[in-house]
Amino acid sequence: MNIENIEVFPWNESFNTGLIEIDDQHKKLVELLNQLSSHLAYQFKLSSLDDVFNELTAYAEHHFKTEEAIWQKYFIDDDWYNIHKETHANFINDVLAIKANKQALLISEKKFRTLYDSTSDAVMLLDDKGFFDCNAATLKIFDCATSEEFYTKHPADLSPDKQPCGMDSQILANQNIAIAKDKGSLLFEWIFKRVSTGERRLPRLLLS
């Protein structure tokens, strides 16, 4: 997946120190920080995000060792040297802490996906453009061969003209979708027709 790079920390020529090796390393660090920002902004897979964290941590450690070796020759007795060295250590610790939090999220995501795929209830996700994700139970209940086929449907496309309450399926479906968007989710019962047989079913649906 190609993502547009977001520059939250654009390079500025005023950052140049005049030391080619250090300046090149600074540019690389800026590039990696912006790459991390892009992955976070586009909610990229956590496994891919973990790779970016690893690369950023390893390169930062390499850069800091190079920079501190140069400083040690000229600023070893300067308080600024010790303060800046501590800043380097804090940067690494902060990156490792953020990475650890993302790893915890990855474990939570796997647990959620297991529950999502194993439940017998139809679970589907939608945005303003329509459905964009669903579990296996959804495909079975609606008699759709693939997720892509289901994504082309509107609930009313798979429903009788009216629901048991007497309301038009199209109108009631739109109301339920609006409620789900407003509240974050909505669990409800709904009469559907299977695509191949026209058989009517009453599953519980969770819109989120």
Summary, kept brief:
The protein is an alpha+beta fold.
Describe the structure.
The chain has helices at 20-41, 46-75, 79-118, 136-142, 147-151, 169-183; strands spanning 122-127, 130-134, 186-189, 192-193, 200-201, 204-207. The protein starts with 19 loop residues before the first helix and ends with a strand. The protein has six helices and six strands. β4 and β5 (200-201) form a beta hairpin. A four-stranded mixed β-sheet has the order 2-1-6-3. The protein has a two-stranded antiparallel sheet with strand order 4-5. It is of the alpha+beta class.
Determine the strand fraction and express it as a percent band. Answer: 5-15%
Helical fraction equals 55-70%
Q: Report the total helices.
A: 6
Number of strands: 6
Looking across the biggest beta sheet, what order are the strands in?
Answer: 2-1-6-3
Shape: rod-shaped
Uncertain segments: none
